[in-house]
Amino acid sequence: MKGMSLLSLRRIRPAAASSQPDGGEPCPALPDFETAYQENLKFIWRAARRLGIDPGDTDDVVQEVFVVAHRRLPEFEGRAQVKTWLLKILVRVVRQYFRTQLRKPGHRPSPSLDDLDGLRDSQTRGPAEAAERKDAVRILDCLLDRLDCEKREVFVLAEVEQLSAVEIAEVLGANLNTIYSRLRAARQEFQQALARFHTHELGGTP
Question: Domain range for residue 100?
Answer without folding.
Answer: 1-108
